[in-house]
């Protein structure tokens, strides 16, 4: 029961960071907080946080950002599946190598979101769509350390 509360709390904090208002010129530099936290929990505890949590979190991000319903759910479920299959291998990588993998996964998320938005006519092609992936990949080591400390503090396994 305690672990479920901690999962929920970290996801709520991530959603609050996703909703935090930032100036228009910095929108491209906003990290994907919800996906970052989701990736940590799937790599750390793949049998407790998985595809169902990814789907629900994706729907919440869709509602929060006002995007097409299911857009983030689709990519979060795909990314969660890849992480759940490769979690043993990902644990063996160094933090910076994990950060590169996180960059690649968030890039997939950004590409799918861009394709949907471009199809709807609300997005123009730009390489800046990858900037959130770069920022998220760079934040991975710190997020990993913080969430691992939370996991150890509350003895979640």
Automatic annotation (TrEMBL):
Keywords: Cell inner membrane, Cell membrane, Cell shape, Membrane, Transmembrane, Transmembrane helix. One of its GO terms (cellular component) is plasma membrane. InterPro entries: Cell_shape_determining_MreD, MreD_proteobac. One of its GO terms (biological process) is regulation of cell shape. It comes from the Bacteria. The chain crosses the membrane at residues 6-22, 34-57, 69-87, 99-116, 128-147. The keyword Methyltransferase does not apply. It is found in: Cell inner membrane; Cell membrane. It is a multi-pass membrane protein. Belongs to the MreD family. Involved in formation of the rod shape of the cell. May also contribute to regulation of formation of penicillin-binding proteins. This is Rod shape-determining protein MreD. It comes from Maribrevibacterium harenarium.
């Amino acid at each position: 029961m305690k672990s479920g509360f901690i999962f929920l709390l970290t996801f709520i904090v991530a959603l609050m960071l996703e909703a935090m208002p930032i100036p228009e010129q910095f929108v491209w530099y906003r990290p994907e907080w919800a996906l970052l936290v989701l990736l940590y929990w799937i790599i750390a505890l793949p049998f407790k946080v998985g595809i169902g949590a990814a789907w629900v979190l994706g729907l919440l991000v869709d509602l929060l950002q006002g995007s097409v319903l299911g857009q983030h759910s689709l990519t979060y479920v795909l990314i969660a599946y890849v992480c759940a299959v490769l979690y043993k291998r990902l644990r063996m990588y160094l933090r910076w190598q994990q950060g590169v993998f996180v960059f690649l996964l968030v890039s997939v998320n950004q590409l799918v979101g861009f394709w949907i938005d471009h199809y709807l006519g609300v997005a123009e092609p730009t390489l800046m769509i990858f900037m959130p992936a770069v920022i998220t990949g760079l934040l991975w080591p710190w997020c990993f350390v913080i969430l691992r400390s939370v996991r150890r503090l509350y003895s979640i396994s």
